[in-house]
Amino acid sequence: MRKVTIIGAGPGNPDLLSRAALDAIDIADVVIGAHRALAGIDVPPDVVRCELVKTADIAAALTDAASWQRAVVVMTGDVGLFSGARRLVEALSGNAQVDVRVIPGISSASYLAARLARPWQDWRFASAHGVAGASSYQVARDTETPVVLVANGRGASLSLAAVIRGIAEFLPCANVRGVVLNKTSAAACAYAAPAIEKHTGVAVLGNIPADEAFSLESRHLGLVTADEVEQLSARIDKMAELVEKSVDIDRLLEIAATAPDIREEPYRLEPIAGARPIVAVARDEAFSFYYEENLRALEDLGCELAFFSPLCDSELPRGTSALYLGGGYPELHVRQLSENAPMREAVRRAVESGMPTVAECGGFLYLQREISDSEGRRWPVAGALEGASENGGRLSHFGYVELTSQRDGLYGPCGTRIRAHEFHYWQSTCPGGDFWAQKPRRDKGWPCMTTTPSLVAGFPHVYYPANPDVARAFASAAASFAERRRHG
C-alpha cells in the first residue's frame, strides 16, 4: 500500500516546519504542492518535486502515478483550520491502495503568530492552565535540555499518541526525545508503543506499572513531608528496582547526555563587610518550607545559619541576631507549639526587641496571637503580632506574585520589588497591607504583609535571587543588630 502524508505548512515558511514534517519529506519519493508551499523547503535531490495547486490535480497525480510508494503533499495553512486537506482526503478516500495521514507541519500557535507577522517568541500563548513563559517548556528550551515525558497510560493506547504529539509539536523547539508510560503494565506498553512511535516519532522508553510502592499520601498544600513517610528509603529502593526493570535506563542516560553544559555561572552573592551574624532558622515538622537559594544567599552574604525547633527547643540558638520563620504546617502541630511556652515567649521577646525577623506563611501565623487547628480549636502562639488564623476552606491567592512595598521597611525603601508566591488554606484576621501583591499578566492584586524597620511578615514566600538587595538588607540588619548588642 502506498502512503500519502498531507502536511499543513502554515504561511509557507520552511523554518516553522515541525520535525515530523521534515522527516516525512526526507523519506518521500515525491513531494507535491503549490510553488508558494514548496518555496524554501529543502527537498532531497533524489525526491521528485511536483508543483500542483488544485486539489483535483493533486488527487489525480497521486492516483495515476505508479512509480512512488511514499508521497508528501504540502499545503499552506494549518490543517486544523484549512479545508484543502479535508477535500484531498475525501478525493483519495475511494482508493484502496492509498493510506492517507494528515499531520500539522507547524503548531497552531506558530501559524497564528506567523499570520499576525510576529515571531512566536514575542508572544505568550495562553492555555487553560497557563502560558509558555515561566513554564517547564521554557526552562527546557532555554537550557537546551532534552525532554522525556511521563504520560499516564492507564486505559489508553492510540489517544496517548495524540497527547504526546500535541506536547511535542504545540510549540517549536520542545525537544521531546522520549516518553515513559506511567501506571501501565509491560503488556499494555508493548501494545501501545509501536503506534505511539509511528505517529509521534517519540521513543517509548518503557513503563512504570501501577504499584503501591509509588503512592505517597497527600493532604492540603500537597504531599506529606519526607520526614513523615514511614520507611521512605526502603520504598525508594523498591521503586528504583522496579523502574530499572521496566525502563530503558541506558537509553534514558544517552538522551540526558546530549544536554549541553550550562553556560551560566552558579548564582552567588559577595559577602557583606562586618560581623558574621547568626540567623536562627526555624526547621522542624511544623516549619519546613524554604527556598534553598534563599538560605544559600544568606550564607553567601556572611550569615551563619543556626537551625532550631519551635516545637521542641525552649530557647533560641545562642547569639541569635535575626529570625527566619519559614512556611510549613503549624496548624497541624499547633497544640505542641502552643504548649511550648518558653519558646513562644523567646520569639515574642526577640521580635519586640527589634531583632530583624522574616516570617513567611506558617511563620507569620506563629507570630500572631492564635492559630485554630483543623477542628476549630484556638491555641495561643507567640503573640508578637495582632491577629488570629483559621481554616478558610480553600486555597487563597494561589500562585506567583510580584510584591511592591508601600512603605519603608526591613527589605528596603518604599517601592522595593520582590517576586514571591502564595499557597495557603489558613486565613488571618490581620493579613497586613504594607505590600501590594500583583498577579503576573493579570489585572488582579491585593494588599498583604506587615513591615517595619526590623520586620517583614505575611503569607508570601519571597525569592531572594529575584532581588538580591532584599537579602542584603536582611543580612545587613542582622549584622547591625549583632554589632549593637556587642557594644551594649
Walk me through the structure:
This protein is of the alpha/beta class and 488 residues long. Helix content is 31%, strand content 26%. The chain contains 15 helices and 25 strands. The protein has helices at residues 19-26, 35-38, 55-64, 83-92, 108-115, 136-143, 158-169, 186-200, 232-246, 249-257, 292-300, 334-339, 341-352, 362-367, 468-486, and strands spanning 2-8, 30-33, 48-51, 70-75, 98-104, 147-152, 176-182, 203-208, 218-219, 222-223, 278-282, 287-289, 304-308, 320-325, 327-328, 357-360, 370-372, 378-380, 388-405, 417-428, 435-438, 445-448, 450-452, 455-458, 461-462. Helix 3 packs parallel to helix 4 and helix 7 (158-169) packs across helix 8 (186-200). The chain is elongated and about 100 Å long. The protein starts with a strand and ends with a helix.
